[in-house]
């Protein structure tokens, strides 16, 4: 559904969108790079307010969040569009909206789910949280805020799964309602960000640092993309997490499979995932996980001090939870997270 967007201003007769670092300047009728925000009559209009195209009930481990109320169910929603354009996007049918599609496809006008219905469905289904994901929820900030406000009032948690490519003012507003974030830190090179995602590194780093400083729960994910993500970058990310955030911030290393415009790239070789894991541990990170590789030894949580298993997982399922009052049952080391 169409709605007047929140984050924009007029400049030299154009609408300047203030939502993300792309910073589109839009003439009358022009569509932003995300494909879903348009200058209509001198106002910025979002065409996807409540245009929920995907909804599913997932274990929170699928976001991935491993230390935020493990094993709970989360209702996950998305609308079309994205402000990044990753070559290997696995949700490209949702995220990559062709320019002009919002005018041609009546579904953008006709599809609308009221925020209260999302919250009711989450409660009815026994979910503990609502997650905003699949496309980048930055692009449906206004709708996310409305759903998240209601969800909070009804005792649900809110989780943003994002690439972190957003401007500070909207992020501050969103952060008032969020409880946890799963954030992609894709590369540690501006060039790789530009070539693979049409984004930039610095805003992402600054946003992660900002969110961490506000005390919200954060877990980071890096997709190990062959040829684009070098070993030097992997070490750079691990070191940055330890030095700029904390060694206990969970870091998920995810196996890449070719999709969309990256079909020429191979799936991540298994040995590259294990190498990245080793680098993370060498750099002093306490909770490094390997994902998208069924049944590997690094999808459980181990005590970084004595090696005791703390949360046993198989895929997205929690098979055993052994933390006692936030501590390792064997050596009493504190385990950070919400349990
Ligand atoms: S949200 Fe869309 S319209 Fe706004 S600056 Fe980013 S890409 Fe451009």
Provide key terms for this protein.
339 residues, alpha/beta, TIM Barrel, 3 domains, 8-stranded mixed beta sheet, 3-stranded antiparallel beta sheet, 10 helices, 27% helix, globular, binds iron/sulfur cluster
Outline:
This protein is of the alpha/beta class and 339 residues long.
Blueprint of the fold:
Blueprint lengths: L2 E2 L3 E4 L2 E4 L7 E2 L10 E4 L2 E4 L7 E6 L13 E6 L13 H4 L5 H4 L2 H4 L4 H10 L4 E4 L8 H13 L3 E6 L5 H8 L4 E5 L5 H8 L3 H13 L3 E8 L6 H15 L5 E5 L14 H13 L5 E4 L9 E2 L6 E6 L2 E5 L18
Parallel strand pairs: 8-9, 9-10, 10-11, 11-12, 12-13, 13-14
Antiparallel strand pairs: 1-6, 2-3, 3-4, 5-6, 7-8, 15-16, 16-17
Helix pairs in contact: 4-5, 9-10
The chain binds iron/sulfur cluster.
Walkthrough of the structure:
This protein is of the alpha/beta class. The chain folds into three domains: about 5-45, no CATH class; about 55-310, Aldolase class I (TIM Barrel); about 310-339, no CATH class. The protein is built from ten helices and 17 strands. α4 (about 115-125) crosses α5 and α9 (about 230-245) packs parallel to α10 (about 270-280). The radius of gyration is 20 Å and the shape is globular. Iron/sulfur cluster binds near residues 19, 20 and 32.
């Amino acid at each position: 559904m169409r709605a007047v967007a929140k984050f924009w201003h007029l400049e030299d007769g154009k609408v300047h969108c203030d939502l993300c670092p792309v910073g589109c300047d839009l003439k009358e009728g022009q569509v932003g790079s995300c494909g879903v925000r348009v200058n209509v009559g001198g106002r910025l209009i979002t065409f996807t307010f409540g245009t929920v195209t995907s909804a599913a009930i997932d274990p929170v481990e699928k976001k991935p969040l491993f230390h935020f109320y493990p094993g709970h169910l989360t209702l996950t929603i998305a609308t079309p569009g994205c402000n990044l354009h990753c070559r290997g996007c696995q949700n490209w049918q949702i995220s990559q909206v062709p320019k002009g599609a919002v005018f041609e496809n009546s579904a953008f006008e006709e599809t609308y789910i009221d925020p209260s219905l999302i919250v009711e469905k989450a409660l009815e289904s026994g979910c503990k949280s609502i997650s905003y994901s699949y496309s980048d929820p930055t692009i449906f900030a206004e709708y996310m805020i409305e759903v998240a406000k209601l969800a909070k009032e009804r005792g649900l948690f809110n989780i943003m799964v994002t690439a972190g490519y957003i401007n500070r003012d909207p992020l501050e507003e969103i952060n008032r309602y969020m409880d946890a974030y799963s954030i992609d830190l894709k590369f540690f090179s501006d060039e790789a960000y530009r070539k693979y995602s049409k984004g930039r590194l610095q805003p992402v780093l600054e946003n992660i640092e900002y969110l961490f400083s506000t005390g919200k729960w954060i877990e980071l994910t890096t997709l190990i993309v062959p040829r684009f993500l070098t070993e030097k970058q992997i070490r750079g990310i691990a070191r940055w997490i330890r030095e700029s955030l904390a060694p206990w911030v969970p870091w998920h290393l995810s196996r890449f499979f070719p999709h969309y415009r990256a079909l020429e790239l191979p799936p991540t070789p298994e040995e590259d995932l294990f190498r990245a894991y080793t680098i993370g541990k060498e750099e002093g990170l306490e909770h490094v996980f390997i994902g998208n590789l069924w049944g590997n030894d690094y999808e459980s949580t181990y005590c970084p001090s004595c090696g005791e298993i703390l949360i046993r997982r198989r895929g997205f399922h929690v098979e055993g939870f052994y933390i006692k009052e936030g501590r390792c049952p064997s050596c009493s080391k504190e385990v950070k997270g919400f349990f």
